[in-house]
Amino acid sequence: MAPRSRLTYQTEQLIAEVKKYPCLYQVHHPHYMNMTLNYKCWREISKKLNRETSVLKKDWRTLLDCYRQVLITKGTKKRQTWLNLWRFEKHMMFVNR
Q1: What confidence tens digit (pLDDT) does each residue in 59-94 have?
Q2: Best exposed site among 15, 25, 29, 85 by fewest CB in 10 Å?
Q3: What does the pLDDT look like over 9-42, one tens digit per residue?
Q4: Where is the MADF domain (predicted)?
Q5: Rounded Cα gap, residues 15 and 91, in angstroms
């Protein structure tokens, strides 16, 4: 088995860190719209991953968009193509809960 790429590792780290802060992704969370808390959470993630907050937010938005596209294509013939191309679906399943 080939070692994971650095990008894959960073993406998995980002997903794992965001998962710790439901207020960033659960729209029904009581603090979802709390911008102060949102800012603090992203700052913590930024410190842990040693990356710029703006870059992390952009990467997270891209991950969410890709995940939503995978969900939309479920049940279509395109689904298998998406699953073969996008390896983070299982990592992102917590977003639906």
Answers
A1: 999 999 988 888 777 766 665 555 555 677 778 878
A2: 85
A3: 899 999 999 999 999 999 999 999 999 999 999 9
A4: 13-97
A5: 7
Q: Looking at beta carbons, which pairs linking 48-53 to residues 24 or more positions away fall under 8 Å?
A: 48/17, 49/10, 49/13, 49/14, 49/17, 51/10
Q: DSSP letter at 29?
A: S
Q: Is 66 exposed, middle or buried (0-12, 13-18, 19+ CB in 10 A)?
A: middle
Give me the residue label for tokens 């689904």.
79
Tokens representing residue 89 in the block: 């679906």
Say which amino acid occupies 92.
M
The pTM of the full predicted model, rounded to 2 decimals, is: 0.78
Name the DSSP letter for residue 76: S
Q: How far apart are CA 8 and CA 13, in angstroms?
A: 9
